[in-house]
Here is the input.
Amino acid sequence: MEQIPFVSSAPNTLGIELELQLINPRNFDLAAAADELLVQMANHPIADRVKPEITRSMIELNSSVHEHPVGLLAEMREMRDALCEAADAVGVSVAGGGAHPFMRWQERAISDSPRFQYLAEMYGYLARQFTVFGQHIHLGVPSGDAAVRMVHSLSPYIPHFIALSASSPYYEGVDTLFSCCRLNAVNSFPLAGHLPAEVMDWYQFEAHMAQLRQSGLAESIKDLYWDIRPKPEFGTVEIRVCDTPLTVERACQLAAFAQALAVLVSREPQPPSTAWLAYRSNHFQACRFGLQGSYVTPDGQRLRLIDHLRALFQRLMPIADELGTRDMLAMLQEEAVRNGNDARWLRGQFHRVRDLPAVVESMTRVWRGERDAAVVAEPAPRRRIRATSEPMHGGVQALATPEAGRTSGWGSDRLH
Here is the structure.
């Protein structure tokens, strides 16, 4: 059996990757401008941390390794400003968000790299539909065994990351009724999912990978579209479920949350095997209903996700004090409890202007750090949908056109 070397990293270090949308500033559709943008940035000091993605309407920012999220935030602001300057020179705009609200997957162009071309040939239209945008959070761990333990320990909290980061309610001009529709595209791939529950150490992980290779199911760890997975060449555990937030501030708050949570779970016993029982249901609830979804704890208790999150923040605050990140976690908590996630904000924007291109324009302005990006109009009436398994009579219909979107969503104009 082939061994997989694991590069040791200092515990509690972190870094992030952000997949970003390239926007045509005339019609606010996606722009296939990644190649031009990469050329424009070729001589910039951060050029090696700006990467292409699977389609040419995407670009990826990679941070360096940080011990403290405050340093990460300073770096990400500098990278954001440099990217926006280069985008201006090329004639495009940049936005966060987990999915473009009205793009058509048929119009996406695959990037010219051997791996991306292989994925397009292998997965057909799924490759172009994979024009969705996520934040990956890397947490340093000292060994492969520690990585597997961390994956198991963080897995019950995957719904919390989904709900806090959700920013993809619209897709191809339709309100999907999901807070996060992006993960539906990810879950279309055959090796999506999670680490097998029976894999408990690095040796067993190596054996699992060997079985996948021998069966022709995977060539490398890159083929595992898991929610959270080891990244041995970086010496990290990689959380992969977050939508790209609309701002770098929210992205770095999520990284601070992940860092504090990693410390917390390292001090607690491993979750029981029953934690996997509700994994897929919890995942769905967070994608569909966001912070208002139902959550089943590893010990079988059912409650609202936002209520479990409130209690979790209380447990995290003493650790945030140790790490010096209380302010960042407190801001994330306040925004989540008071104003919800970015998906709620996007729906609020739509219900003011009834125009998805105008929503995308506000996304580009918010990404630049413009705090006055919210457009002003009368708030839409709030509508509640139950996040339970009960049938909904007289249910809510997804929007067929932007003009049809007068019946769902919220009116909040606050953004972190």
